[in-house]
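hey so u asked for the seq, here:
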Amino acid sequence: MKNIITLTTDFGSQDGYVGAVKGVILSINPKAEIIDISHQIPAHNVLAGAFCLFNSGSFFPEGTIHVAVVDPGVGGKRKAILIQTERYFLIGPDNGIFSLFLRTEKIKRMVSVTNPKYFLGKVSATFQGRDIFAPVAAYLSLGIEPKEFGLTLPEIARLSLPGIEKRRGGIIGQIIHIDNFGNLVSNVKAQELNEFKIMKIKVRKRTIPQLSRTFSEVKKGELLAYIGSSGFFEIGIREGNARLELDAKMGDQIEIQI
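ran it, structure tokens below
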């Protein structure tokens, strides 16, 4: 049996939605081990949910079931999907939330989840995380084969990261994620910088003179640029909050002069 089920959602912790999802899973499989990856994804931000799962999902044991629900199209035409890779199972809406995670996974099977036998009674048009994704994850953890949940799906929706712009003497990226510490994660990957010597970095009218390896290389309260643990170029402040200091937001440009 596949007893580890992770949850990544934009449900927050105020309203009891997460509790309802967990209650459904445990009612079907009391032995399920439910792990919260995050429930603080910005509301309706599919890319943020995709990035969160990308950062954490591959560190779980093989056979883990990842449920990800950031679902602005709930109740609409988008499909409910189950994806089996060589190592994991993914359950959620077909809106691209698994796109980044699947960059490092080999897909074995994709299923459009349509079999009401594995749903929770009458399905709400606004809470399919509880009524479809949770029970499907629970039944899957009990050993039900993926093919039992619906028909094979030939294609799924894909998200793509915003592209970088390469100019003579520089690279223009943008902020795609802001973490809990206020660090600004860009769409510029480490390998895109390996062949260059970085001269300086500009963001929100501020200049950073060099690339650092660790926060300890700068003084408290000082801005720094570095390659983060997810392999992307980031801006932070030692013992501070770069988002607040720079009044930064998703989509803001970062210029890397090389």
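The helical segments are 17-28, 46-56, 128-141, 242-246. The chain is about 15% helix and 30% strand.
lmk if thats what u needed
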